[in-house]
Structures are given as structure tokens and as C-alpha cells.
């Protein structure tokens, strides 16, 4: 895996580590966060160990305010129930907690994402004869609809960052800035997409995702080459601060349930 | 009062070819032993209903039990794809498989409607997604009070609901704790039901957060220790994550899967 050399010092990190750390930094303490498994779960649990010790983690298996000491491999691992403030049924988590807008941030990933932040986790190609059958929706469509805001964490590859997703599993900004309100979606939708190369945010006028930050050591041209649409670059392009020693040490100390010690 | 029987008797009595069957358990308490017994008894043409098909439906699909799958997330959690499900969808092996696909919120509400004796459920969901274009059990209704357009999903009423729980007493009252998923709704929505349990006890001790299904809504209880493995049973055993990872290799290849299936059939219940 490619390691990026910082300008000074001897610390190195992988692009995936930078992504998880940038995603963790985007969460604020005391927010209630609906967490998808995989990259979002890693980032949310990292945030809880760093600057957001009171982050409320909610998983769709019905675990409210869970504090796992190891990362779960699946959405309903025992470690999530054992460390939860409360465990509720699956209908309750969706109907009482997600649907009315009681959750601040939905933290999602996907197989494809388009210029308006729509997410596909269903099929690549045609629905009836797909070239790749993906797992499907899970909780994502309603997380994307009903959380106050959505943060997406995804590896930046041209085949994944496409002009238009093959299948809209979860609505981002549809096809423009007014579509969410026309559809009656109550949350703000994706406010940030954090990748292993940088950060994309929707333009306030057009809702199209534009590059607002590159991670330390990443060139804009590389991000453009890995994006399947003509990626606009913000006039105020930021550079993500490199990982600190504490961030890297904490991330590397987190193990997944069942991993060899 | 629920009947207490062996697993083989329970499956033989409750599950028939062509039935709509829901084996529920959200990561926790997945009724693997009951699914394996359905495979051994050679049921065919089943409509399998489950939010997360998981390994158990991958195995049942690969064994040729299913003709239709109703689901909302079909992967091997934390590992990757369900290869037997994908092979059935792409190549019709070992039998063609139709799908009816929802979101988790939609499936959960379909069970709630079924359990509540209602024909459909209302939710804020699916708006702007491509799912309603492909799934005819998703529609919409206008709220009679506000005029708001809301998603409507058809109730689920399986012929048979199957769950695994920690305990039952001798009358057949069934106790579940930890992540309780949609098991209560799945049992109440179904015409017939089977609960496999870790142990049958004289008296159920109260457990914080437990769900109790009373004996008159459960048809048959079968004592099957480790009946949820390789998933887990809170208070009894942990999830066997290594088995979930190993399934990826076994399920990728039809011959390798065939050897797994032969050993399952020879391993009499």
C-alpha cells in the first residue's frame, strides 16, 4: 500500500488511514450518529476515542449509544449489544429513532457515488441482468433520507465516482438543489464526502459535489483522474492536516472482533 | 400451549414445499439448525423471507430449497458477497431465483403490518430511490389528514415463521434477549411458527430487556443447543467470525459447496 511521506518527520501513513482520520475529525462530540458497518464504523469509533468521547453511536441492529471496545465485524455483533445504553427492536430503531429525525448524522459508504451524492449499493449495470450484484439497501435509503445530515466515506476510484449511479439505492441530492424538498426528504442529505484522496462537498447553488480539500501530499490532478465527472475545484481549496501521532496510534490500536491478537 | 418436539419432527410438521418461510434473527440468534434441517428434509420451491439472507439463506439457496427470495440486504456481513445467492441469480444454479427487494425499514414495517393484522404499513421511505420501479410491494398512499404522500408496503404474512431463542419453559413460552431484531414480529405475522431454543427450563427467570413470546402464539418448540451457530446466542456462545470468513471460500465454488452440502446431509440431526 502506498505510504505518503510528510514534509518533515519520520511518520508515514496509508491513504486509508488518512481517510478514516479525516472522517473521524468531521464528527463532533455529543452528536447522535447512525453508523454503517466498515469504513464508517472505523471512523466513528476512532472519533469516540479521540475528540468525541460522548459521541452517541447507533447501529441498525437496535443498539443505542453503544461503546464497543473492539470494532464489530457485523452490524449486530454481541460487542454492540453488551456495551449499549439500550437495545431496541429493529422496527423501533427505524420507526421511533431514525424516521422522526432524532439522529444528527448518518455515516454511509457505497459502491458507486455520483456528482449529486446519490449512492448505489444494489447493482452495477441493469437491475435485471447486472454485471455485479451488490448486497442491496440495508438501512441506507432511510438513513440518507432522515438523518439531519449525511457524511459519506468511500475510497476514491474512477469506477466508483461516476457521472450517474446505475441504481439509486439512497438519494443524495437527486439531480439538483431542489430535489430533496420536492421528494419530501427531511434531512439535509450528504454534506461531505470523505475519500482517501480528499473531501468533496455539495455546491450551495447547484448541489453538485466539488473538491473542497485534498489530503496532505495529494495533487488535484490525481483526484480529477479518479473522478468520473468534470470535478470542479473550490476557490478555497484546503489541505487536510496530516495525521497526528495520537490519531495514528489510536487508529492502529483498534482491532476488529475475532482478529488474531 | 406450544408442543415440544424434536427439530426433525417440527420441520416435518410445519414446513411444506412451496411455503413462504421466514427465518429471522438479526445477526444474533439466526436459526441455522432449523435451516439445515429444512435442507436435509429436501424442501423445494420455498419463498424465503429474511431481512439479511446471511449464510443460512446462501446455504438454502445453494441446496435448491428456494424459488424466491424476499430481502433487504444480501451480503456476508463484514466479509463480502453471498456467492450461492449470486450464482442462483446470475445462472439459475441450482434453480432459478426470483427476488423481491426492499430496504430494512420497509421489511421491518412489512412484518409489523403482518403482526398487527393490517394489509399494509406506512412509512417515510423509498422516496427518490429506484427500488419502487422493481418491487411491486412498494407503493404510496396519501395521508387522509394532511394530504402528505407516504410510502406504503404490503404486509408480510409468511406461512411459517422460524426463530431461535435462548430459552423456553415447558409450556412453550419463549424468551429472547440481547439484539431482538424482528423475531417477535416475524412470529406474530406468520400462520405457523417454530422456535428452536438453547434450553427448555422449568421456569423462565426474568432477564433485563427480554422479549417473551407467549405459548399460545408458538406452535412448536424444539430444544437445539448451539442452534444459532455460527451466529451467536447472547449468554451462551459468541459469533464464530472465522466461520463467516471461511464461508467465502467454500461458497465461491460449486464443487466445494457440494462437499459442504454432502457433509451437512450426512451429519444427521
UniProtKB/TrEMBL annotation, chain A:
Q: Which residues cross the membrane?
A: none
Which portions of this protein are annotated as coiled-coil regions?
A: none
Fetch the Pfam families from UniProt: CoA_trans (PF01144)
The superkingdom listed in its UniProt entry is Bacteria
Q: Family, per the entry? A: Belongs to the 3-oxoacid CoA-transferase subunit B family.
**What name does this protein carry?**
CoA-transferase subunit beta
- Organism encoding this protein: Pseudonocardia humida
Automatic annotation (TrEMBL), chain B:
Give the record's keywords alphabetically.
Transferase
GO MF terms listed in the record are: transferase activity
The protein's matches in SUPFAM superfamilies, at most eight in alphabetical order, are given as: NagB/RpiA/CoA transferase-like
**Origin: domain of life:** Bacteria
TM ranges are none
UniProt entry tagged with the keyword Transferase: yes
Q: Which InterPro entries match?
A: CoA_trans_fam_I (IPR004165), NagB/RpiA_transferase-like (IPR037171)
The family database entries (Pfam families) matched by this protein are listed as: CoA_trans
| The family this protein is said to belong to | Belongs to the 3-oxoacid CoA-transferase subunit B family.
UniProt name for this protein = CoA transferase subunit A
Q: Which organism is it from?
A: Pseudonocardia humida
Question: Where is the organism placed in the taxonomic lineage, from the top?
Answer: Bacteria, Bacillati, Actinomycetota, Actinomycetes, Pseudonocardiales
Amino acid at each position: 500500500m502506498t505510504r505518503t511521506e510528510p514534509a518533515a518527520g519520520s511518520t508515514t501513513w496509508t491513504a486509508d488511514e488518512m481517510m478514516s482520520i479525516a472522517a473521524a475529525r468531521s464528527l463532533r462530540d455529543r452528536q447522535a450518529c447512525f453508523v454503517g458497518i466498515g469504513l464508517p464504523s472505523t471512523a466513528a469509533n476512532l472519533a469516540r476515542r479521540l475528540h468525541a468521547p460522548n459521541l452517541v453511536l447507533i447501529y441498525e441492529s437496535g443498539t443505542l449509544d453503544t461503546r464497543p471496545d473492539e470494532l464489530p465485524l457485523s452490524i449486530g455483533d454481541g460487542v454492540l449489544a453488551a456495551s449499549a445504553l439500550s437495545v431496541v427492536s429493529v422496527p423501533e430503531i427505524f420507526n421511533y429513532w431514525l424516521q422522526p429525525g432524532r439522529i444528527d448524522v448518518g455515516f454511509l459508504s457505497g459502491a458507486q457515488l455520483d456528482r449529486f451524492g446519490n449512492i448505489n449499493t444494489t447493482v452495477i449495470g441493469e437491475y435485471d441482468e447486472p454485471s455485479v450484484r451488490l448486497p442491496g439497501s440495508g438501512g441506507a435509503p432511510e438513513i440518507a433520507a432522515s438523518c439531519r445530515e449525511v457524511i459519506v466515506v468511500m475510497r476514491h476510484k474512477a469506477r466508483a465516482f461516476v457521472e450517474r449511479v446505475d441504481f439509486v439505492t439512497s438519494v443524495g441530492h437527486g439531480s439538483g438543489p431542489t430535489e430533496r424538498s420536492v421528494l419530501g426528504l427531511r434531512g439535509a442529505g450528504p454534506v461531505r464526502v470523505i475519500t482517501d484522496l480528499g473531501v468533496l462537498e455539495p455546491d450551495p447553488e447547484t448541489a453538485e459535489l466539488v473538491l473542497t480539500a485534498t489530503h496532505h501530499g495529494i495533487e488535484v490532478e490525481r483526484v480529477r483522474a479518479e473522478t468520473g465527472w468534470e470535478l470542479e475545484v473550490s476557490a478555497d481549496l484546503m489541505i487536510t492536516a496530516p495525521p497526528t501521532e495520537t490519531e495514528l496510534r489510536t487508529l492502529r490500536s483498534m482491532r476488529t472482533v475475532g482478529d488474531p491478537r | 400451549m406450544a408442543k415440544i418436539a424434536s427439530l426433525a419432527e417440527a420441520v416435518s410438521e410445519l414446513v411444506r414445499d412451496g411455503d413462504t418461510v421466514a427465518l429471522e434473527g438479526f445477526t444474533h440468534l439466526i436459526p441455522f439448525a432449523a435451516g439445515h434441517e429444512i435442507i436435509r428434509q429436501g424442501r423445494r420451491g420455498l419463498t424465503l423471507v429474511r431481512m439479511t439472507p446471511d449464510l443460512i439463506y446462501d446455504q438454502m439457496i445453494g441446496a435448491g430449497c428456494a424459488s424466491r427470495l424476499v430481502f433487504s440486504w444480501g451480503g456476508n456481513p463484514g466479509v463480502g458477497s453471498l456467492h450461492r445467492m449470486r450464482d442462483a441469480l446470475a445462472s439459475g444454479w441450482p434453480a432459478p431465483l426470483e427476488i423481491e427487494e426492499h430496504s430494512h425499514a420497509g421489511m421491518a414495517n412489512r412484518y409489523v403490518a403482518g403482526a398487527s393484522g393490517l394489509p399494509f404499513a406506512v412509512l417515510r421511505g423509498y422516496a427518490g430511490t429506484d427500488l419502487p420501479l422493481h418491487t411491486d410491494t412498494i407503493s404510496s398512499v396519501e395521508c387522509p389528514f394532511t394530504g402528505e404522500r407516504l410510502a406504503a408496503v404490503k404486509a408480510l404474512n409468511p406461512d411459517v415463521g422460524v426463530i431461535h431463542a435462548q430459552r423456553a419453559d415447558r409450556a412453550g413460552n419463549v424468551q429472547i434477549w440481547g439484539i431482538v431484531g424482528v423475531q417477535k414480529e416475524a412470529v406474530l405475522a406468520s400462520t405457523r411458527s417454530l422456535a428452536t431454543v438453547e434450553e427448555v427450563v422449568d421456569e423462565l427467570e426474568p432477564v433485563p430487556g427480554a422479549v417473551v413470546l407467549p405459548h399460545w402464539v408458538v406452535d412448536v418448540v424444539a430444544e437445539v443447543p448451539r442452534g444459532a451457530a455460527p451466529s451467536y446466542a447472547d449468554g451462551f456462545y459468541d459469533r464464530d467470525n472465522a466461520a463467516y470468513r471461511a464461508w467465502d471460500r467454500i461458497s465461491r465454488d460449486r464443487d466445494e459447496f457440494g462437499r459442504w452440502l454432502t457433509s451437512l446431509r450426512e451429519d444427521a440431526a
